[in-house]
Design a protein that fits this description.
Length: 431
């Protein structure tokens, strides 16, 4: 049976984009988590950890789990962010999901839950989930039931090159949008590319419009607009206008519309190699910068998205989310055991030390040594509002339209008003 929360148009589009036919789909869900003739259970684990050191650390953790559970084998499937989203949407439409799969929670997880495809973990994980940080668990709670276990929590902000800022005469990170635009102008005047952007992947561009919407309308307005199916209010159009102001300064690297995020010539590498001064990205940015490029070391700094003058939002309202794992309906006990292993203090300490993750186990907090990660954590602790990534908080078709429309604005093919109207139209079409 098809996935009732996804329109036929949306399913056909994502299936074609993902290149997933029924042959590929049949390899998940009901066919995984099975036992072999020797009593071994194989569990399939889909995640998005495709860059080092995280990719290697996670593979080693899977081997460690297997060593502790000799009758269990873990089959890892790792996909880049956009490919993962597309294939998971197609798998959801087919009614078959992997045993263990990456989730950001929010509206996408809710649709999967409403379709009966995700395990209710409330009772199965109570012995260890109760001890995790409450804010980290929020995206995976639906009707007070647990449908995912977090392994990371964080926020989006600007990662910047301190040396390039100093060279351009920028003495401190900007705290207002006007000051941010001035910083962009100063960097350009010095011949420095102010911002790196993965225009090809669209989701990094969405961060700008989302934050500007939060700063103009206030954090709670984004959820209200989705509930009301109306993004045409003045604050959302103004958010697009503010983004247009930035785009008009031509702040991005040459060829940004065709650039990926984590490729050797992409967004993260542009910052990591010192070719661009800033990127708007999550707490994983330093690790990816060092993997795709050289990394900036002590020259790397972090600052929150600036406030917009006259806006209803504040600089302490945070946009972001974390990573979690959910299980398909009927997943074997070995999958639950893996979640417990992954949420243990020992594993969390390893993730914090080796991959730069922010801890979800309180006892692992002492493992943070990187000053930038400490800065992110401090910002999170002081947050007065929180908004999950829009392409996860909203239903898939609406989230995709946000990404596409904002991408079109950045590319010069849509106006701020048209962005608001397109998102509203898609929201109204969703049932």
């Amino acid at each position: 049976m098809g996935y009732p929360g996804l329109s036929r148009r949306g399913f056909l589009a994502v299936s074609a984009a993902a290149g997933v036919g029924m042959t590929a789909l049949s390899g998940c869900g009901g066919d995984s988590g099975g036992g072999s003739s020797d009593g071994t259970t194989t569990i399939e684990w889909w995640n998005i950890s495709t860059t080092e050191p995280t990719k290697g650390v996670w593979a080693a953790l899977a081997k460690k789990f297997e060593a502790q559970n000799p009758k269990v084998k873990v089959k890892i499937v790792q996909l880049e962010n956009d490919a993962y989203k597309s294939k998971m949407t197609a798998l959801t439409a087919s009614g078959k999901l992997p045993d263990i799969f990456h989730t950001w929670g929010g509206g996408v997880l809710k649709q999967q839950v409403d379709a009966g495809l995700v395990d209710d973990l409330t009772d199965r994980t109570k012995d260890f989930a109760d001890g995790l940080l409450p804010v980290a668990k929020e995206p995976y709670l639906l009707d007070e039931k647990v449908y995912g276990i977090p392994f990371d929590i964080g926020m989006i902000g600007f990662w910047y090159n301190k040396a390039l800022f100093q060279d351009a005469g920028i003495t401190e990170p900007p705290t207002t949008w006007g000051a941010f635009l001035d910083a962009v102008r100063k960097l350009k005047a010095k011949g420095t590319t102010p911002l790196a952007l993965a225009g090809k992947e669209k989701w990094p561009g969405m961060y700008y419009w989302a934050y500007l919407s939060m700063r103009t309308a206030g954090a709670s307005a984004l959820q209200k607009a989705y509930d009301d199916k109306d993004f045409t209010g003045d604050p959302f159009v103004q958010a697009g206008q503010h983004l247009q102001e930035l785009v008009d300064l031509q702040p991005f690297q040459k060829g940004f519309l065709g650039a990926a995020y984590s490729s050797p010539t992409g967004q993260a590498a542009s910052v990591g190699n010192g070719k661009a001064a800033m990127e708007l990205m999550g707490q994983w940015a330093p690790v990816v910068q060092a993997d795709a490029g050289k990394g900036l070391g002590d020259d790397l700094g972090f600052f929150p998205f600036p406030a917009v003058e006259g806006g209803k939002g504040t600089i302490t309202e945070v946009f972001g989310g974390g990573g979690g794992h959910a299980l398909r309906s009927g997943a074997p006990q070995a999958a639950v055991d893996f979640l417990k292993f992954f949420a243990s203090e020992a594993t969390d300490v390893e993730l914090v030390k080796k991959t730069g993750a922010l801890p979800v186990v309180p006892a692992a907090e002492s493992a943070i040594t990187d000053p930038n990660i400490k800065a992110v954590q401090a910002q999170l602790k002081a947050a007065t509002g929180f908004q999950l990534y829009l392409d996860q908080a909203y239903a898939p078709a609406v989230g995709q339209e946000v990404n596409d429309s904002v991408g079109a604005l950045i590319a010069g093919s849509k106006s701020p008003q048209q962005v608001a109207e397109s998102i509203t139209k898609t929201a109204k079409e969703e049932q």
